[in-house]
Design a protein that fits this description.
Helix content: 25-40%
Largest sheet: 3 strands, antiparallel
Strand order of the largest sheet: 1-2-3
Number of strands: 3
Distance between the termini: 31 Å
Oligomer: single chain
CATH architecture of one domain: 2-Layer Sandwich
Low-confidence stretches: none
Radius of gyration: 13 Å
Strand content: 15-25%
Number of helices: 1
Structural class: alpha+beta
């Protein structure tokens, strides 16, 4: 599955969250670290849902840039 990830630059690095997976967030001092961390967070989130027998949310969020 392919989930949208929202990435924000912060004063101390980067943060990211997955709108389709409530509570699935991560941070990193560099973009590369945050990329690794959010990927791991998604995998752990989905593993936990599977262990609980809960349904896996379908990706529904879409994003694009709009020039103004």
């Amino acid at each position: 599955m392919k989930y949208a990830v929202v990435i924000e630059k912060t004063a101390t690095g980067y943060s990211a969250y997955v709108p389709d997976l409530p509570g699935c967030v991560s941070v990193g001092q560099t973009r590369e670290e945050m990329d690794r961390n959010i990927r791991e967070a998604i995998e752990l989130y989905l593993d936990e849902l599977r262990e609980q027998g809960a349904p896996i949310p379908a990706p529904t969020t879409d994003a694009e840039y709009i020039a103004v």
